[in-house]
Every structure is written in C-alpha cells, then in structure tokens.
Amino acid sequence: MRWLTSAVGVAALLGAASAQDPDSKQVVDAETGFTFGQYVSDQGISFRIAIPDPAPATGSYDAVVQIAAPIAIGWAGIAWGGSMTYNPLTIVWKSGTDVVLSSRFAFGYYVPPAYTGAVYSILKTGTHVNATHWQITAKCTGCTQWGDDDIGVTTLDPTQQNPLAFAFSTVPPDTPSSNTSSFGIHDSIGHWYHDFAQGTNPGFTALVSKNSEGPGSSNATTTATGGSTGKPTNSTLTPPRPTTVTSKTSSFTSVTLTPTGNSTTTSSKPTPPKPTKPTGPPKPSRPPKPTKTLKPTAPVKPPHSPPFPFPVWTPKPKPTAKTPV
Ligand code: HEM
Ligand SMILES: *[C@@H]1O[C@H](CO)[C@@H](O)[C@H](O)[C@H]1NC(C)=O
Ligand SMILES: *[C@@H]1O[C@H](CO)[C@@H](O)[C@H](O)[C@H]1NC(C)=O
Ligand SMILES: *[C@@H]1O[C@H](CO)[C@@H](O)[C@H](O)[C@H]1NC(C)=O
Ligand SMILES: *[C@@H]1O[C@H](CO)[C@@H](O)[C@H](O)[C@H]1NC(C)=O
Ligand SMILES: *[C@@H]1O[C@H](CO)[C@@H](O)[C@H](O)[C@H]1NC(C)=O
C-alpha cells in the first residue's frame, strides 16, 4: 500500500501541526470526481465525506459517503455523531462482488436496529470489490441532522470539523446479502475530527447523477475511470494520518447480540424505553467544536416504543419550535 511509504513524512508534518487541525485531509477521487474530506484509520479503512457547496446554513443536507476497506475487513461503520448510540450509523460490508449498506441507529450497546431516518442511494461508480479492497459510495439523506424532542436535534456544521466515530470487525455479518443482517461487536473503534469543509463540491448534484448509474450505463458519462476493476489512475488520495485516534481494542470475541431471544413471537416484553441519552462518548482530548444546535434534555417517555429486538426508529417530524417540557 503506497500510503505506508509516506507515513513517516506525514507523521513529521503532523508533528508540526496545530492542535486545531482536523484529522481528515482533502482528497480528490478520480473515479467519481468528488472532492472528499478523508480520514484513514490505523487499519487502512478510509472514511470519506463529500457535501454540497454551498450547504444550507441550517438544517439537513445530503452527504456522499465513501468507505474503502481492506478485503479482510468484515464490516465497517461511521457514527455521524461520534458515538455509538443516538446517532445515524452507516454500516457497510461486502457480499460477494457487491457491497451492502445498512442504515442503523443504536439505543444501547447491542446490535443497532434499522434506522429509517437516513435514506441512502448507492452510487454505482465508486462501489466495487477488487482483489485487495471493497469500497462503497452512497448519497445519504438524513446523515447530517437527526434527533427529535426526546433526544435533541443535532445538525452537523458543513463549514467545520465534526467529531465522528468509526467501528469495524474482521468478522463479516451473519447474512452478508441482507442489509438487515445481524453482526458481531467491533474489534475496535475510534474517534476523529472530520473537517466537512474539505469535502465541499459545487457540482454535488451533478456528480451524484453522473455516478449513480455507473460507467456501464449508456446514460452515464464515459469519463469516469475505473469500474469494478478499474484503477484510479490519477487519484490524489493522500496517505493516512497515523495514530491520531485513540482506538480501543475490544477484547470481546464476536458476541451474539440477540439480547434475549430472537424469536419473532416476542413476549410482552416492555419496550426498551429510549432511555436517557447516555453521557457523551470518549472524545479526542481537545475540546469539541460546537456542532450541536440544540439539545433539550428530556426523556419524558418513549413515544417511539420500538419493538424488541429490532425496533425501527423513525424520527418524528422535525420540531418547528422548541417547546420546553
Ligand atoms: C453488534 C453490534 C455492536 C455491539 C454489541 C456493540 C457493543 C459495544 C460496547 C459493549 C461498547 C463499549 C461501551 C463502553 O465501553 O462503555 C461499544 C462502544 C462503541 N461502539 Fe459499539 N457495538 C456494536 C456496533 C457498533 C457499531 C455498528 C458502531 C458504529 C460505528 C459502534 C460504535 C461504537 C463506538 C464509537 C463506541 C465507543 C463508545 C461510544 O461511542 O458509545 N458500535 N460498543
Ligand atoms: C435495506 O434496503 C432497502 C431497499 O433499498 C431499504 O428500503 C431499507 O431501508 C434498507 N434497510 C437498512 C436497514 O438499511
Ligand atoms: C441521464 O438520465 C437523466 C435522467 O434519467 C437525464 O436527465 C439526463 O439528461 C440523462 N443524461 C444523458 C447524458 O443522457
Ligand atoms: C481496489 O480498490 C481500492 C479501493 O477502492 C483501490 O484503492 C485500489 O486501487 C483498487 N485496486 C485496483 C487494482 O484497482
Ligand atoms: C494526473 O493527471 C494529470 C493530467 O491528467 C497529469 O498531469 C499528472 O501527472 C497526473 N498525476 C499523476 C500522479 O499521475
Ligand atoms: C435465534 O437464532 C439462532 C440463529 O439464527 C437460532 O439458532 C436460534 O434457534 C434462535 N433462537 C430463538 C429463540 O429463536
């Protein structure tokens, strides 16, 4: 992997970097044409985010997420709010020559259930499996803003660094072909500060269209290099930033996550109430940027009452006004 060869040089540069610098770097993906902010984990998993330019000053905006993982990675995921729980999770894995994306949202430290508040469109160009890696590129509507009155609404600032988190396991999901598959706990997780401004794309919508059908489509532009086997000839993907993340390795082996029986005839188990949002996750040592737009405290009671064990949480329509509880 060529990035290893320049790791030393990068480390030297980083040594002089200010503490305020993001952990992500700007890269241009020759295959899709998107400009991304990219973070590369110690394991060589690349997490890339592209957004429109301009992005709306308030509210939700679409994002294109691209994840490229070494072939030995069983699943990998992004937590858009920087913690496992109470934020959209984009989980991806390979299934044969396809790559599958699953939208999840965790309410606790067990297999995150499906999340309908984020909707994805997989871009065929930029999604492939080759001998060494699998990669997926998808547009997400609903990854940059989430929440409701109960857990608070969070909006990621498109102009700033946002604290994100990743997780991965070398163990593939139980049923790779299904985006609702269960999977085991991560081998490791990490946190980083991702500069969303690095991934701004004035031609965002056109790029989404251009890449959505893939290079094989008659309606697709033919300038995209690389298909399923193509080589990004002139990618400017930059080397990773080594060891900037406190990645803690779990000693758990792959845990099976059906918390109490996976029978569909669930007993009259009380719905797992959306509990109080747990206190924040471990974050990098520097003070986080102010990215939360509002955060009412207030778990009065769980109106969502998701069924166990795989509840699907759909956020309520966005609150138009903050009503003090
Ligand atoms: C089978 C599914 C999963 C299980 C059983 C599981 C379980 C756990 C457990 C037990 C912890 C440690 C909590 C602590 O130390 O206090 C943890 C932490 C964490 N997990 Fe998961 N996890 C799963 C999936 C995921 C996924 C898909 C992500 C997506 C990125 C993720 C991200 C994290 C992060 C970032 C942390 C650090 C603590 C936090 O942010 O809350 N996990 N997980
Ligand atoms: C799985 O894919 C279907 C079809 O695209 C989609 O409707 C559903 O929301 C996805 N589920 C998850 C958990 O991502
Ligand atoms: C591709 O299809 C879209 C919508 O289906 C259409 O708007 C666009 O003009 C087409 N582009 C080409 C080059 O045919
Ligand atoms: C395989 O895919 C990875 C991730 O997209 C890419 O970086 C690499 O260049 C590809 N290898 C070949 C031989 O195309
Ligand atoms: C990238 O492409 C440009 C123009 O196509 C070329 O001048 C440049 O040398 C290429 N860079 C690399 C690293 O291949
Ligand atoms: C749970 O699922 C496992 C594997 O799918 C199965 O072997 C087991 O019988 C199931 N348990 C129940 C209670 O349905």
Automatic annotation (TrEMBL):
Q: Where is this region: Disordered?
A: 204-325
Q: In the record, which residues are listed under signal peptide?
A: 1-19
Biased composition annotated in UniProt, kind: Pro residues: 270-290, 299-318
Q: Which CDD domains match?
A: CDH_like_cytochrome
Q: Which UniProt keywords apply?
A: Signal
InterPro entries per UniProt = Cellobiose_DH-like_cyt (IPR015920)
**Protein name per Swiss-Prot or TrEMBL:** CBD9-like protein
Say which species the protein is native to.
Answer: Coniochaeta ligniaria NRRL 30616
